[in-house]
């Protein structure tokens, strides 16, 4: 039986990052993967969807070339090649993870891993043992009883990024990041898209101002938006799917070639041996402490299988924290109040910390500032004037409570707010940090200036 210091189950951005950090710390490490290295994120999620969205962005530029003083007489799309490019990007990233495994001397064990008592892992009948076993098996598309996926007419995110033929019409159920990103992509490609959201706003976890701006942008792009609505049943017997949608005004029947179910994710906990080992779960999640230890010594869990935001960067951070603690390093628990969230549709959304409503409900007296990109020189020059940066500060002590952005490229800007909050910066310190001109990032400084009554460009 092969013996290791650490065995990681799953090679997504939680698992493979954990394995690399363990190896860097001198721990003999193996990783178990049933499909492709990189997991869902690299192969079916974060990376290939961004490749699709880049194709959509370039296509939008071509459609509006005249806005930039350019004449493009003839252009078209090849949907198959757009999909092919996305798959190529994913394969390249997966090969990159293979290289990292070799570079860090991590043994890759291909197959379905199942934990066993006595700190053992069974992989398709062969046993391995380790002092520390870390579960990082990720998640999959969640299925609702009335939205059963058949992979053809009713699909999840995997099928959405590998369709052989572009559908003429699509209903997207759910307006979280997955739903709105695919809604934007297919709409840009020319598919007639309707998005159905149960809650009152699109991207309902975001600050209300962001949600309202986002909804306006989606409607302007030609996407039909139905909020306060739910798909009650589907009829897939005909050529088109018939969806019965319950709205505040009564029932409505929609028809489309494809229904994309984007109603969240479910953790991959089935058949991995949790019951055999006696590991405690609650509401479909493995219960862990601040160091990701389960109730059974020697077994840990990170990423989408534990409570908290199901995000790639969170899984990576949890894995690093977990193995650094195992290795005896001094580590601080992760501050889940300072996790950035990003949505890569058009316009992009990025946020960290409290929304204005959450801050008010928590009893803070607030200073709120907002700077629209319509007043930004760089945004005007880029032809990307939709959106704004909004900042929320505690009026008493100047603590940066939240930052919410919507617009072009904001997912690359949010790290300033994350770092500022981590370092406990105040509004006045942000104001005195000179931002380069002309950039989109100036909007952060200007929004802070607005909060403190010192804004120059409004």
From TrEMBL:
Q: Where in the cell is it found?
A: Cytoplasm
Q: Where in the numbering of this chain does the Pyridine nucleotide-disulphide oxidoreductase dimerisation domain appear?
A: 339-447
SUPFAM superfamilies linked = FAD/NAD(P)-binding domain (SSF51905), FAD/NAD-linked reductases, dimerisation (C-terminal) domain (SSF55424)
- Entry EC number(s): 1.8.1.4
Q: What is a single Pfam family found in this protein's UniProt entry?
A: Pyr_redox_dim
Record flagged with keyword Cytoplasm: yes
Q: Which Gene3D superfamilies match?
A: 3.30.390.30, FAD/NAD(P)-binding domain
Q: Which keywords, in A-to-Z order, does the entry hold?
A: Cytoplasm, Disulfide bond, FAD, Flavoprotein, NAD, Oxidoreductase, Redox-active center
Required co-factor(s) are:
FAD
- Which reaction(s) does its UniProt entry say it catalyses? N(6)-[(R)-dihydrolipoyl]-L-lysyl-[protein] + NAD(+) = N(6)-[(R)-lipoyl]-L-lysyl-[protein] + NADH + H(+)
Main localization of the protein described in the UniProt heading: cytoplasm
Please provide, alphabetically and separated by semicolons, the GO molecular function terms listed in this UniProt record: dihydrolipoyl dehydrogenase (NADH) activity
Relay the cofactor remark from the entry: Binds 1 FAD per subunit.
Q: Which residues form the FAD/NAD(P)-binding domain?
A: 4-319
User: Which EC class is the enzyme in?
Assistant: oxidoreductase
Q: Which family does it belong to?
A: Belongs to the class-I pyridine nucleotide-disulfide oxidoreductase family.
Q: What else is known?
A: The active site is a redox-active disulfide bond.
What is the protein name for this chain?
A: Dihydrolipoyl dehydrogenase
Native species:
Aequorivita iocasae
| Phylogenetic classification of the source organism | Bacteria, Pseudomonadati, Bacteroidota, Flavobacteriia, Flavobacteriales
């Amino acid at each position: 039986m092969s013996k290791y210091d650490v065995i990681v189950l799953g090679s997504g951005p939680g698992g493979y990052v954990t394995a690399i950090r363990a190896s860097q710390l001198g721990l003999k490490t193996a990783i178990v993967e049933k499909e492709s290295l990189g997991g869902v994120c690299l192969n079916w999620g974060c990376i290939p969807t961004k490749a699709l969205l880049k194709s959509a962005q370039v296509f939008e530029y071509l459609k509006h070339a005249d806005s930039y003083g350019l004449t493009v007489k003839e252009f078209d799309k090849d949907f198959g090649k757009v999909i092919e490019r996305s798959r190529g990007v994913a394969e390249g990233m997966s090969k990159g993870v293979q290289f990292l495994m070799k570079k860090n001397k991590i043994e890759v064990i291909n197959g379905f891993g199942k934990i066993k008592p006595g700190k053992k892992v069974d992989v398709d009948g062969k046993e391995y043992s380790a002092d520390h076993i870390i579960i990082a098996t990720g998640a999959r598309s969640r299925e609702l009883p009335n939205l059963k996926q058949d992979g053809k007419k009713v699909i999840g995110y995997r099928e959405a990024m590998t369709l052989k033929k572009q559908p003429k019409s699509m209903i997207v159920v759910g307006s979280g990041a997955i739903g709105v990103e695919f809604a934007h992509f297919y709409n840009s490609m020319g598919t007639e898209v309707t998005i159905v959201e149960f809650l009152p706003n699109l991207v309902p976890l975001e600050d209300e101002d962001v949600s309202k701006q986002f909804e306006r942008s989606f409607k302007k792009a030609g996407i039909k938006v139905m909020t306060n609505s739910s798909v009650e049943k589907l009829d897939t017997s005909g050529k088109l799917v018939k969806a019965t949608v319950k709205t505040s005004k009564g029932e409505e029947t929609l028809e489309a070639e494809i229904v994309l179910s984007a109603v969240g994710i479910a953790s991959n906990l089935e058949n991995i041996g949790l019951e055999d080992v006696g590991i405690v779960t609650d509401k479909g999640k493995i219960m862990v402490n601040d160091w990701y230890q389960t109730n059974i010594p020697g077994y840990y869990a990170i990423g989408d299988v534990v409570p908290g935001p199901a995000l790639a960067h969170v899984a990576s951070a949890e894995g690093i924290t977990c193995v650094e603690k195992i290795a005896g390093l001094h580590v601080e628990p992760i501050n889940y109040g300072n996790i950035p969230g990003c949505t890569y549709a058009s316009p992009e959304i990025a946020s960290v910390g409290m929304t204005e409503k959450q801050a008010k409900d928590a009893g803070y007296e607030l200073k709120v500032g907002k700077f629209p990109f319509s007043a930004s020189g760089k945004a005007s020059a880029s032809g990307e004037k939709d959106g704004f940066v909004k900042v929320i500060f505690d009026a008493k002590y100047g603590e940066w409570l939240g930052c919410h952005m919507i617009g072009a490229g904001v997912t690359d800007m949010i790290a300033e707010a994350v770092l500022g909050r981590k370092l406990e910066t105040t509004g006045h310190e942000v104001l005195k940090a000179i931002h380069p001109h002309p950039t989109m990032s100036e909007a952060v400084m200007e929004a802070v200036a607005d909060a403190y009554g010192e804004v120059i460009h409004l």
